[in-house]
Amino acid sequence: MKKFSLNIDNEEVSFFYGLICNENNARLAWLINHAIAIDLAKENSIEWYNDLENVNYYFDKFVYIDELNHLTYTFFSNYDDNVSLFTELKLRAMKYFILIEGGLTFFDEKLFLKKMKTINEIQLISKIDQKRLKHKVNLIL
Questions:
Q1: If DSSP codes are grouped into helix, strand and coil, which group holds residue 114?
Q2: Which CATH number describes the domain made up of 11-132?
Q3: Which one of 17, 30, 34, 81 is at 20 to 30 Å from 119 when CA atoms are compared?
Q4: Which residues contact 46 (CB under 8 A, 6 or more apart)?
């Protein structure tokens, strides 16, 4: 099975968070929208073809583009049919991820985390150090 991870051109212009939550992805996207006042919308899923099993996997993806602050929020599932996008043990524990890219001079990380922690359904939100990801493969978000 291929190993997946993020390939981000400039790691200094993005934040990457893992989430542990038992809600379904649409409900969690709705909760995030209300907590941090954005409008995540469902887009085409991330598709991954596993050539060993001859199977396609689809990982749900929601995106919000904040044109005023030059930020893009991408929220996506880590699992489809018990298959994880990421093989690293720490990342396999995460059910969802949020990638925030763009003009991070306008992004208040402390306020973001404070608002995300008001979502009772989220058991854990953890910032992922992108430099420590073992396997970098192009993953088009």
A1: helix
A2: 3.60.90
A3: 81
A4: 58, 59, 60, 61, 76, 85, 139, 140, 141
Tell me the per-residue pLDDT of 64-81, one tens digit each, with 9 for 90 and over.
Answer: 999 999 999 999 999 988
- Domain definitions of the chain by residue range: 11-132
Locate 70 and state its tokens.
Answer: 């030059």
Rg (CA), the chain: 15
Helix (H) or strand (E) holding 37: none
pTM of the model: 0.84
CA distance 101 to 13: 6
CA dist 71 and 116 (Å) reads 17
13: pLDDT strictly greater than 80? no
